[in-house]
Amino acid sequence: MILTGALVNAAAIAVGAIAGMFGGKLMPDRMKTTIISVLALITIGIAVPGLMGSKNPLIPILSLIIGTIIGELLDIDTAVNRFGDFLRKKVGGRGAFTEGFVTGSLVYAVGAMAVMGALDSGIKGDHAILIAKSVIDGVSAVVFGSTLGLGVAFSGLTVFAVEGLLALLASVIAPYLGADVIAEITFTGSLLIFAISLNILGVTKIKVLNMTPALLLPIVLCLFM
Known about the structure:
The protein is an all-alpha fold. The protein is 77% helix and 0% strand.
């Protein structure tokens, strides 16, 4: 089913947040730090297989360069963060539930892994990225749930709506995409996922959101190359 990955991701966030409400505060800080490192390694493991399939390396190279230029001109990362700050200010006086819902929605529904995972679900019927994202989100939701409460669990609904919609849209265009296009999208997306892992480890502070337009460019570039 096309929506399986999105559904699993939403459920993992809900379960993790609820677990965090009851037991997250018992987890030592050093354990949280180690688990974050493990999550980064899992993310690297997700990215590596996708880096094997490119048949024309020039396509992902150009996609990333052109896509990043577009993303930087639009400054997607800053726009999303400003929107998040705006929402937090608006709901700041409305209680912890709303704050947890808004924070969880922004953290889990926006990002290259959500986009790439939804595309994989819709185009290839492969839910591996979203299921792996579910593990990462579920564990981090324990931490968020312990501090922000039940609203984080309900942010899973936002995740399901966003990822589900992207997967459904991707399934509509999937019949018109050849195997070469899918391979180049996968390669490009895998590079972005690898960048996420470096951010999780604190090695870099790459603005991955500004690179997400690159995911669409292989569709165009494969027509000419």
